[in-house]
């Protein structure tokens, strides 16, 4: 196999979680206007794989110095699976709890449901939530570009054996100009110390983590489409972003649920992943692990405070616009990431909840000859995190 490069710090951290079975997949389920057949999926995947090197990655030397290599070939029969009709909860639960394949198989899968849903699952080591959206955008474009299967040619691209992507794997986040100030390091360490002191008053899940892997439990909730414009209008009126609003609503809803169970709390610690592609122009449109996160302790009681929502919006916006003083930048100073991750798996969580907002998928213009292909809905989900917060909200 061809060696792309050594794994970066963020990739090694996610790999360490996967190796101790504390995390599995990032998933996006798209509902297509009609169900692609296996042959159509194979043909489309030839195009998608050729465009995204992350889909050809195999991680080797996991126990020593992990490196990303390019698979010699990709057997789509190990990646594409037909499943029966089931509820969204059941589908996400099934996909999230599937184990990884062998070490020589790129860690991604596609599940085809008869009703037109297509679930794409990928290892977080070389992909993030936005990557799953990019996959579906590429898959949709490839389906639209397909000719009738009988015209694919003598060596038609529906062959289950697919050549790997020939493009180079983009460099890791380590090489994207990540920098942290001593002030930021000191602030983070102080925040961790205060967080430990504050933990007795803040719900962070069980006092002890499970000794063995616990299956990811999934609950899918759909907001009526006619409410969304009103929610967005309220955000614009108050100069706030949707993600920040979801953050503040989430902590209040969680606090109310905890209070009903006899566990009152006034504040909760929330983590919000942020996409760094905006401040790394070379990574626009590329699949990869290109995220950091913002941690914040929010008031979880009282009426919704739009000024606080606006402050969170500003904080998220500012953080997503720079590679300076990012949480992922601290990984460069973390030493042995495998041991660090294993230690975290034995300690109580330091946060309450994570909110991941992947954003909407905007379709490109539909070519006239293939206007029957559309995506009508997109649902994002991620595995339960055995070294992170006890509850994840994905939208």
TrEMBL record:
Signal peptide: none annotated. One of its GO terms (molecular function) is N-acetyltransferase activity. InterPro entries: Alcohol_O-acetyltransferase, Atf2/Sli1-like, CAT-like_dom_sf. SUPFAM superfamilies: CoA-dependent acyltransferases. It comes from the Eukaryota. PANTHER family: ALCOHOL O-ACETYLTRANSFERASE 1-RELATED. This is Alcohol acetyltransferase.
């Amino acid at each position: 196999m061809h060696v792309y490069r050594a794994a970066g710090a963020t990739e090694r951290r996610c790999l360490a979680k996967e190796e101790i079975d504390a995390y599995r997949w990032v998933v996006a389920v798209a509902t297509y206007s009609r169900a692609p057949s296996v042959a159509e999926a194979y043909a489309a995947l030839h195009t998608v794989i050729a465009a995204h090197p992350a889909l050809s990655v195999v991680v080797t030397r996991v126990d020593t110095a992990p490196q990303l290599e390019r698979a010699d070939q990709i057997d789509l029969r190990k990646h594409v699976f037909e499943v029966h009709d089931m509820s969204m909860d059941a589908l996400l639960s099934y996909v999230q709890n599937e184990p990884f394949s062998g070490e020589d198989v790129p860690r991604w899968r596609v599940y085809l449901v008869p009703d037109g849903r297509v679930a794409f699952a990928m290892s977080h080591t070389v992909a993030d939530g936005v990557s799953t959206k990019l996959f579906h955008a590429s898959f949709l474009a490839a389906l639209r570009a397909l000719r009738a299967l009988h015209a694919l040619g003598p060596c038609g691209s529906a062959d289950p054996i697919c050549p790997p992507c020939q493009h180079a794997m983009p460099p890791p986040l380590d090489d994207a100009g990540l920098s942290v100030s001593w002030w930021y390091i000191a602030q983070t360490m102080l925040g961790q110390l205060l967080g430990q002191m504050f933990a007795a008053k803040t719900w962070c899940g069980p006092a002890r983590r499970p000794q063995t892997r616990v299956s990811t439990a999934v609950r899918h909730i759909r907001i009526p489409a006619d409410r969304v414009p009103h929610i967005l209008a309220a955000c614009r009126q108050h100069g706030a972003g949707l993600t920040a609003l979801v953050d503040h609503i989430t902590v209040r809803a969680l606090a109310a649920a905890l209070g009903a169970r006899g566990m009152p709390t006034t504040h909760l610690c929330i983590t919000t992943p942020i996409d760094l592609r905006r401040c790394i122009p070379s990574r626009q449109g590329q699949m990869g692990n290109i995220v950091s996160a913002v941690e914040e302790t929010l008031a979880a009681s009282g009426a919704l405070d739009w000024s606080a929502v606006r402050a969170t919006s500003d904080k998220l916006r500012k953080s997503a616009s720079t590679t300076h003083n990012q949480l992922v930048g601290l990984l460069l100073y973390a030493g042995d990431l495998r041991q660090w991750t294993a230690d975290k798996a034995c300690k109580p969580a330091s946060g309450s909840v994570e909110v991941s907002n992947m954003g909407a998928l905007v379709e490109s213009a539909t070519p006239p000859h293939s206007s029957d292909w559309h995506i009508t809905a997109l649902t994002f989900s991620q595995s339960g995190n055995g070294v992170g917060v006890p509850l994840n909200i994905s939208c």
